[in-house]
Amino acid sequence: YRVRPALSGKIALQAVQAEAPDLILLDIMMPEMDGFDVCKILKSEPTTCDVPVLFISALSETEDKVRGFEVGGLDFITKPFHTAGGLARVKTHVTLRRLQLEMHEQDLLLLNEIEERKRIEQDLEDANTELELLASLDGLTHNPNRRKFNLTLEREWSRLSRSGEPLSLILCDVDHFKKYNDHYGHVDGDECLKKVAQAIASAVSRPADVAARYGGEEFAVIMPD
Length: 225
Hints:
By secondary structure, this protein is α/β, with parallel strands linked by helices. It has seven helices and six strands; from the N terminus they run αβαβαβααβααββ. The protein has a three-stranded parallel β-sheet with strand order 1-2-3, with helices on both faces. Strands 4-6-5 form a three-stranded antiparallel β-sheet, with helices on both faces.
C-alpha cells in the first residue's frame, strides 16, 4: 500500500481533496479537531463521501463506536490491535472499495451505451420518417405522389363510408402538354408542371385536403367531407 500520513485532521482534509484515497484510517483523539468531526466533513464532500473510513482509537466504549458509525465510519479498530488482524480488515475494505469503483465505472459505461443506443434509435426513427416523407412526395413537383394519393383515398374512402359523409375528388389533366414539351423542351416542360402543381396546391387550404401528382401531367385533389 502507498500510505500518506497526516499530522492533523485539517492537514488530512487538505490532502484528500488533492487526491482521494482508496481508504482512510482515522484516529479520534487529534489536535484542533477530533476524528468524528473530520469524518463528518469527509462524508459531506462529494469527492470523499464514498471513501471508506476506518476509525483506529484507544477509545473502546460502546458509545464511541456507535458514534463512529453514526458519522459515517465503516469499521472501528481498538488500540492496541494485532497487526495481522488490522491488515486483514484494511485489505477487505480496500478490495470492497475497488470493487465499488469498478461497478461504478461499469455503470457509467452501461449508461453511455444506453444513451448511444437511444441516439441511434432516434437517428433511425428520424431517417425512417424522412424516408417515409420522401417516399410520399413526387420528385419533380414535391407534391404528394401517386402512392400518397392511393393511401389517402383508401383511408378516407373507408372512414367516410362508415360516417356517411361525402368525399370529393378532382382529377385533371394538362391539355396539349406533349406539344408544349416538344416545342419548348423537357426542362421548360418540367418548370411548367412545377407551376401547375404549385397553383393547384395553393388552392387547397384545408389540412385534410391532398393535392397530388397523379402521374405525368395529371393531377388530383382529394377533399374529404
